[in-house]
Amino acid sequence: GLLHADGRGGLAQDPERARDLARQSCDAFPDPFALAGCNNLAVVLTAQPGAEAEGFALFERACEAGFWLSCTNLAERNRDGAYLPPDPARLLALLEQGCEAGDSHACGQAGFAHEMGDGGAEDLDAANALYLRGCEAGGAWSCYALGYNYLHELGLERDIDRGMTLLRRGCEGGDDHGCNELALRLVHGLDGEGVTEPGQAEGIALFERLCEA
Question: Fewer beta carbons under 10 A from the terminal one: N or C of the chain?
């Protein structure tokens, strides 16, 4: 189904065939291997007018059965109250559940919710712990967010070297926010610290790359 969805592995791209195979997989529930099929089917259905309710129900079922990606998908697609009643605390719990299961994106989103006080009181300690977890799991945006907080003393003691390392890790992982913030720091420094001619040249090159993109 995934190969047909993307047109890979020598198979023609065929969204309808991919959807049908995802449903065939999901129909084997409660077999745990069916959960990926339910999640993939839900992705299709929540984007299909008139089928959203079935899609969200599948996300909920897979999430409750322990398929972490469905927890993240359910939270991400319900920010505007599309299916569940608006409940920031519930969405935060879903993201934390996804993070606990190893989804780096969920860790970053849960951390940001804690930082903004979305779903509970503002909690920078919790936010930074989640950013660290997300970064260590390969989440480029989480690396950027943690690096930014080190540089700007948001719940952490300022550590320019650590902050810059994390920004670079986020940038190299493909996060444009990380690249932009890294370029700013290379060109302008932080309170006048750390500016070098090679660093400025690298920062300008990053700006150019981001602008062209």
Answer: C
What backbone torsions phi and psi does residue 157 show, to the nearest 5 degrees? -70, 135
SS3 192: coil
Question: Cα separation of 182 and 174, whole Å?
Answer: 13
pLDDT tens by residue, 40-60: 999 999 988 999 899 999 999
Contacts of 183 (CB under 8 A, 6+ apart): 202, 203, 204, 206, 207, 210
Query: DSSP secondary-structure letter at 56?
Result: H
Long-range contacts of 184-189 (CB under 8 A, 24+ apart): 185/151
> Which residues, at least 6 apart from 154, have a Cβ–Cβ distance to it below 8 Å?
115, 124, 128, 148
* pTM for the model: 0.80
Angle at alpha carbon of residue 118, lines to 112 and 120, rounded to 5°: 115
